[in-house]
Design brief:
The complex is a heterodimer of chains A (about 800) and B (about 120). Chain A is about 40% helix and about 20% strand. Chain A has 25 helices and 25 strands. In chain A, strands 12, 13, 14, 15, 16, 17 and 18 form a 7-stranded mixed beta sheet that branches. A 6-stranded antiparallel beta sheet of chain A has the order 8-7-6-11-10-9, with helices on one face. Chain A has a 5-stranded parallel beta sheet with strand order 2-1-3-4-5, with helices on both faces. In chain A, strand 13 and strand 14 form a beta hairpin. In chain A, helix 10 crosses helix 11 (about 285-300). Mean pLDDT of chain A is about 75; it is low at about 350-380, about 505-510 and about 625-640. Chain B is mainly α. In chain B, helix 6 (about 70-85) runs antiparallel to helix 7. The model of chain B has no long low-confidence stretch (mean pLDDT about 90). The chains are: A alpha+beta (about 800), B mainly alpha (about 120). The interface of A and B includes residues 15, 16, 18 and 110 of A.
Chain lengths: ~800, ~120
């Protein structure tokens, strides 16, 4: 059921290859190569190789040649290689490790050693891949956000300046091309790929100070006066001030670079620029590059005071110093890369964005550990992300889950400090040591994940986490998302997810009501009937009036109205009534409503019932039962949640369990009686059990016919009932019990006319708590029993 | 002849091989596969053609196979042959090759008598 890992076995002896494949068994797929050249070819054509077992001495290309090739095309970063050879010389082993092998197996093959090393190498590689993926995603996210911010900033400026649309994009592109050329020519400025990225991003903010320049000056078609030019020049210092005063650390590299660029992008190499008249290398390289880019783009674009020059003319003017003097090395770069600039600008104008590619390049560079120490920013960013993830996971009481399908490793990361062993990595292939899930749970989970698709990757199910070492176990709800590769033919890679406390993860079924919310009263009455089998609370309210609307069976509204809040038992209007909001927005919402005794998951849904606006409220009491979603279907784990579960099948009264479960609610009963059938055992013995059952049913029916629907009858023992009366005046209590006693005696039992059972009743009024009341009523009942067919209160 | 007797006859370590490869059927399967193994013949041809690179490789491969199968005697003689030709050195002492071929023939004979 799990996707098998694919192992490439490279060995010139077929016999050796067979031995290896047999030793490893059918847990893996195998591809075989009889020499190094064939292995390289297979690596090119098979993208699904998870591990290589590599012999050293072979024809064509030997093992070292294969490793060298894998280093050249960086495959060694992705695919773990386990080297096998009879060559046990230390220099061979060392050379292999230098070339990036993960492990080393020497001949003769030992089954256990080979198997263990292969599994270890796969686990290690899986961990590395996971980290790579995480790093790439986070870097990409971060860059995307900074890019967005920069774009917003720079568009404000552009809009204000009335410059040609893509000026900012142009500057960025030219800056990047120039810098890339510059690092090829010299390492004088020690710029990393990341610095280039940073400067290019920051270049977008070069003219931010122009927000302070009056419109008349910025958009003046003719030449500026001396005073006007002085004001224009201030955009450099103003821009620098804006960036300096931002509420971020000035050490933030992006801001620091943006500051340099904003302030000094009009400086010239010979000191004739503004605002500070810096010369030569006093001008930061970022500002130098942007100044060249700015001039080039200004020349080749239409401005309010000039038309556009063509590419060649612009280059000539810059090189001839018509726009001031620049770093000669940068001019060389400009000439070297001029065609590339023209091409890239054309692409940029076509809306071609490079940002994704750059981010990837950046993350790759970082993972290959080739960047200079200046890569610290990204590391810091990663660290920050990690802390953030940790924090949020902790806030949402998360226990995270990560599953790698290839190695069947499961890592459980506890952010809640509830697990006895914190965070750990588990190997599901090791059936003896894998105890965190039961075999059943593991099987169910792997199956459920395996049958997901890329479009429907989510699974949720209850899973029990176990630590048999110290007898700890706890049932959680696991919400997981299967990971599928983004290839044309998606491959199942594994899953991530979160364990949550059961109660917080109740899912509610879809309501079979039209999206518009418009229904007829008749339809709704039927629907509500059905829903009442699923939900503990089903009612229609007018939240604006705070009233419950009663719907008759024929779908018309009843005149009877009741206030809606008492059901929640906190005696006031709800503080955050979602029904009011649903009514306003004509939508549906859900929340958790707490009463004194328990919690309800409440759904409110706006409805238009025969043209009348109202809200349907559905409440589920939170308990052990949960809804489970799998493969797009929902089903209930514990179907016994409904009222039926509590009913005694013989009499239709509640069973004893109801009394225990609902005790808090039942405590409110005003009065209580214990009703016992006299000589029940004799009736059973004489007439048989069917007759006994009929008697029980008869007694229950008689009682229920004489009390209100709000009262509760419980079959407490074999022939003993407990009756709870909720709203009964003291003076009517005894007479009610007397009427029950009399009715049992006088009413005939259908089909058993010759049986005349009697009951003895003990009743107590205003007795609390419930258990005490039952005890006292029981005692009274025994007194009554002395006479039979009697009531004692 | 059973597998244990086979190993005794050809000078191999049955107990160790069985322990390494875990079960008798697997060992037997691999042993029988040796009959189709072309390494020794390739080695012979390479020496005849004085292709010392291929000859070294052949000896080396045979050494590995013998080691994996626990053919101790074959492993010993092919190891000596391998070292004699390491660095693609021409084989001076042909008796080293003869010794290897003798073991190879003995093993093949014994395999054909295996139940």
């Amino acid at each position: 059921m799990k996707e098998k890992s694919t192992i490439l076995i490279v060995d010139d002896s077929e016999l050796n290859r067979t031995i290896l494949a047999d030793i490893l068994g059918d847990e893996y797929n195998f591809i075989e190569a009889e020499n190094g050249a064939r292995a390289i070819e297979l690596l090119r054509t098979h993208t699904d190789i998870d591990l290589i077992l590599l012999d050293m001495v072979m024809p064509e290309m030997n093992g070292f040649d294969v490793l060298t090739a894998m280093n050249n095309n960086r495959q060694i970063e992705d695919i773990p290689v386990v080297m096998i050879s009879a060559e046990n010389g230390i220099e061979h082993i060392e050379r292999a490790y230098d070339l990036g092998v993960t492990d080393y197996i020497s001949r003769p093959f030992d089954r256990m050693v080979v198997r263990r090393r292969v599994v270890n190498a796969l686990i290690l590689a899986a961990k590395q891949k996971r980290l790579m993926r995480l790093a790439a995603e986070q870097i990409y996210e971060k860059e995307k956000i900074s890019d967005l911010m920069i774009n917003i900033f720079s568009h404000i400026v552009e809009f204000r300046n009335g410059e040609s649309g893509p000026h900012v994009l142009h500057i960025r592109t030219i800056t990047e091309v120039l810098l890339s050329r510059l690092v090829q020519k010299t390492d004088r400025y020690s710029l990393t790929q990341e610095d280039i990225q940073l400067i290019s991003s920051a270049s977008a903010l070069h003219d931010i100070g122009k927000v302070s320049i009056p419109d008349e000056i910025i958009n003046k078609p003719g030449k500026l006066t001396k005073e006007e030019f002085e004001i224009m020049k201030s955009h450099t210092t103003v821009g620098a001030d804006i960036l300096h005063d931002l509420p971020f650390s000035n050490e933030e590299p992006l801001l620091k670079t943006a500051y340099e660029i904003a302030r000094w992008h009009h400086e010239r190499y010979d000191g004739r620029g503004y605002p500070d008249g810096l010369t030569g290398e006093e001008i930061p390289i970022a500002a130098q590059v942007v100044s060249v880019a700015d001039v080039y783009d200004a020349l080749t674009s239409v401005r309010c005071y000039k038309s556009a020059y063509d590419h060649e003319t612009a280059l000539r003017m810059i090189v001839n110093g018509e726009c001031g003097m620049f770093n000669p090395l940068l001019l060389e770069c400009l000439l070297d890369a001029s065609l590339q600039i023209r091409e890239r600008l054309r692409e940029a104008n076509e809306g071609y964005m490079h940002s994704t590619a750059h981010t990837q390049q950046l993350s790759t560079e970082m993972m290959l550990k080739q960047a200079t120490p200046q890569v610290g920013r990204s590391i810091q960013a990663l660290e920050t992300e990690r802390i953030k993830t940790d924090f949020f996971a902790k806030q949402s009481c998360g226990i995270q889950f990560d599953y790698d399908a290839a190695t069947r490793t499961i890592s459980v990361t506890d952010h809640t400090d509830t697990l006895p062993f914190g965070s750990r990595l588990y190997d599901a292939t090791d059936t003896e040591k894998f105890t965190i899930f039961s075999k059943d749970d593991l099987h169910r989970l792997e199956n459920a994940l395996y049958v997901t698709t890329r479009d429907a990757p989510d699974v949720s199910m209850p899973i029990t986490l176990r630590f048999p070492e110290n007898g700890w176990e706890h049932e959680y709800m696991l919400a997981a998302r299967a990971l599928w590769s983004s290839d044309a033919k998606p491959r199942y890679l594994g899953a991530v997810g979160q364990f949550r406390e059961m109660q917080t993860d109740i899912m509610l079924p879809e309501m079979a009501l039209p999206d518009s919310g418009a229904v007829t009263g008749r339809q709704l009455a039927d629907s509500m009937q059905g829903m009442s089998r699923i939900f503990d609370v089903v009612r229609l309210v007018d939240p604006k009036r705070g009233e419950i609307l009663q719907l008759n069976a024929d779908g018309t509204f009843s005149d009877r109205v009741l206030p809606c809040s008492p059901v929640w038992n906190h005696g006031k209007r709800c503080s955050r009534c979602i029904s009011c909001r649903c009514m306003e927005d004509k939508t549906h919402m859900s929340k958790l409503e707490l009463t004194n005794e328990c919690a309800y998951q409440l759904i409110s849904r706006y409805l238009l019932v025969d043209g009348r606006e109202c809200v349907l409220e559905l409440g589920s009491r939170l308990s052990d039962s949960v809804w489970v979603t799998s493969g797009g279907r929902q089903f209930r784990l514990d179907a016994s949640h409904g009222e039926d579960f509590y009913l005694d099948p013989v009499t239709g009264a509640y069973g004893r369990r109801y009394l225990e479960d609902q005790q808090p609610e039942l405590e409110k009963a005003e009065a209580l009686a214990v009703i016992d059938i006299d000589n029940f055992k004799e009736i059973n013995d004489e007439y048989g059990h069917l007759a006994g059952d009929a008697v029980l049913r008869h007694v229950a029916n008689v009682i229920l016919a004489r009390v209100n629907t709000a009262d509760t009858l419980v079959r407490y023992g074999g022939d003993e009932f407990v009756l709870l009366l909720s709203h009964i005046p003291a003076e009517k209590f005894r007479s009610t019990l007397e009427r029950i006693r009399g009715a049992v005696y006088t009413t005939e039992i259908p089909q058993y006319e010759n049986i005349h059972p009697t009951v003895s009743i003990g009743g107590v009024y205003q007795a609390h708590p419930l258990v005490e009341a039952i005890r006292r009523a029981d005692k009274l009942m025994y007194w009554a029993k002395q006479k039979r067919n009697d009531v004692q209160t | 002849m059973n597998l244990e007797e086979f190993y005794a006859q050809i000078g191999g370590d049955y107990a160790d091989t069985l322990q390494r490869l875990c079960n008798e059927n697997m060992v037997k399967k691999f042993v029988k596969k040796y009959q189709d193994d072309p390494t020794c013949a390739d080695l012979h041809n390479a020496v005849l053609q004085q292709d010392w690179e291929a000859a070294f490789r052949g000896a080396h491969t045979l050494k590995g196979v013998a080691q994996n199968l626990g053919f101790e005697r074959l492993y010993q003689v092919s190891a000596v042959l391998t070292e004699a030709m390491r660095g693609e050195k021409p084989l001076e002492d042909r008796s080293l090759l003869d010794a290897v071929e003798q073991q190879d023939a003995a093993i093949r004979r014994a395999i054909s008598e295996l139940e």
